[in-house]
């Protein structure tokens, strides 16, 4: 489901509007469920604070495995009906997080889930993996220039764990940010916009190791337990530059959002499993690496706000736009 954008009502008018939130966060993900697992706390926090949180999901996750046996017929080798079903799951997750602005890259079903690396689905001409980079990036440029976010969140170059759609989502996010800032690129898509800060999702190794110790001690009923390196984006602690700690309401919202992805995720308290039935920790604090823009914390300290240090920049950009409009 795609919620109507709060920004499109102006008919593409580039003038600043009073009813547009001052802080705007854009997240680019590969499949429905990735946003809740990686950024559920962060999305709930900024939405609750009145920021505009915009999620762009690149595929509908048609090649996912289906956990509940009663829904097994949705699978791609049977009815191939997972895409629309996961659209509804994502809409429920967005409601749990309080996020109203969600879009599929290029529209629902524009790019199909490519399956795991090496799968024959990688070669389908409609797969996201086969999409020409600048074509897919242009679909994102349109969103960037409409929403004009100060902060972008996406995956690292390996997509966190090597899934082709996650790698491609990273490429499209980075290329889209670059092209959106170039006034000579597709001017019909809107006025150029430079995103102030770009973050990649990550998980500090010590936190992941501690989470697995708690899981083993709790003895939850998953058939197995995942390995530390099964968690996407595990990095040495020193590489983490920002941490967003969820309060109880935000953690509850993240947990509810993950449960909404019923075909993909089994949640058990502070732990969850994907279709491989291997338990892993559900993180109440989410971590990031700043890869573009100036850090808003002193050297050596982690940011606790993705918009840290961006206030002045926002003011400068807004006044520049007002001058532009006035001319
Ligand atoms: Zn995914």
UniProtKB/TrEMBL annotation:
Q: What is the protein's name according to its record?
A: 1D-myo-inositol 2-acetamido-2-deoxy-alpha-D-glucopyranoside deacetylase
> Which SUPFAM superfamilies does this UniProt record tie to the protein?
LmbE-like
Q: Which NCBIfam families has this protein been placed in?
A: mycothiol_MshB
Its domain of life reads Bacteria
The reply to whether Zinc figures as a keyword in the UniProt entry is: yes
Q: Does the keyword Ribosomal protein apply?
A: no
* Gene of this entry: mshB
Residues binding Zn(2+), per UniProt: 31, 34, 166
The free-text cofactor remark is: Binds 1 zinc ion per subunit.
Q: Record the organism.
A: Streptomyces sirii
Q: Which reaction does it catalyse?
A: 1D-myo-inositol 2-acetamido-2-deoxy-alpha-D-glucopyranoside + H2O = 1D-myo-inositol 2-amino-2-deoxy-alpha-D-glucopyranoside + acetate
Print the keywords alphabetically.
Hydrolase, Metal-binding, Zinc
Q: What cofactors does this protein use?
A: Zn(2+)
